Amino acid sequence: MSxxxxxxxxxxxxxxxxxxxxxxxxxxxxxxxxxxxxxxxxEPGDVVYDDGTPSSAASREAAPAARGPAIVVAHGFTGDLxxxxxxxxxxxxxxxxxxxxxxxRGHGASGGRSTVGDREVLDLAAAVAWARELGHTxxxxxxxxxxxxxxxxxxxxxxxxxxxxxxxxxxxVVSVSAPARWYYRGxxxxxxxxxxxxxxxxxAVGRVGLRTRIHHRDWDPVPLSPVxxxxxxxxxxxxxxHGDRDGYFPVDHPRxxxxxxxxHAELWLEPGMGHAEHATNDALLSRIGAWAxxxxx
Length: 297
Known about the structure:
The chain contains 10 helices and 11 strands. The chain is of the alpha/beta class.
C-alpha cells in the first residue's frame, strides 16, 4: 500500500503556542504528509518530577516540578481514541506526563483508510510532531498490537540521522503485544483478521460492524517489518511488553524482537496476560508509564 517514502514530519491544522493552550485539553485534526486528516487529543496530565515520580506519589515540596514527557498512544487495529480501553490507558499514563491520543487513518473520526500498519507510521509522526509543537522536548511512543508494530517502524524511520524528520522523532519506545513479522496466520484470531482485511465482504464487516475503513490495495512495496526495524532503533530506549497468553501472537514474537535488539531492549513477558489494551491491567499500565517517564531523557 505504500505510495511514497514514509518519513517526513507532518503539520497540524492548528498550532497553538500559548502557555494557556498547553495547560488545556486540546482536540485537533492533524494533517499527515500524504494528506490524511488525523483526529488527535492532547491532555496535559499531572506534574512529573525530574526522577520520574508522579505528583500523586510525592508531595509538591519534595522536589522541583519538571515538565514531564508527552506520551503518544498508538492504539490497536479497530480501535480509536474514544474507545474505553484507549481512554483507560491514557488516564493511567497521565500520572506520568502529558498524553496525546489519536485515531489512526480509517478509524474513528480520522480520514482515509487503514493500511494495517503501513502508512500509519505517518499518522504517528504527525502526532509526535504535534506534541513537540506544543512545547514538549521529550516524547515517548507507546503502541498496542498494530500500534506496537507502528511505533517500532516509526522509531526506525525517524531520528537525528534522518534529515528533515527530527521534529517527529521519539525519545523512547514501548511496544505492547506487537507482531514480529508480517502475514502471520498461526492463530485463529489472526486468520480471522486476514479474512477481514483481504476479502471484500470482510472489509464491509470492518466498515459497518467495527467502524474501521480498510484499504483494498495490497502493500506495494511491503514495508519494513517490526523485527527488521528493531536493530535500527538503538540507542533510543526500547521496551517490549507481551503476555504469555496472547491469543494473537505467541511468545516467539516478542522473543524474536528482543533478540533482534541485541541486548538493547528490555523484555517484559507478563504472566497471564492476553492481547493488547484490553489485557493490560492498571498496575501494568502504571509500570509502563513509570518506565516511559524514566527513559524519556
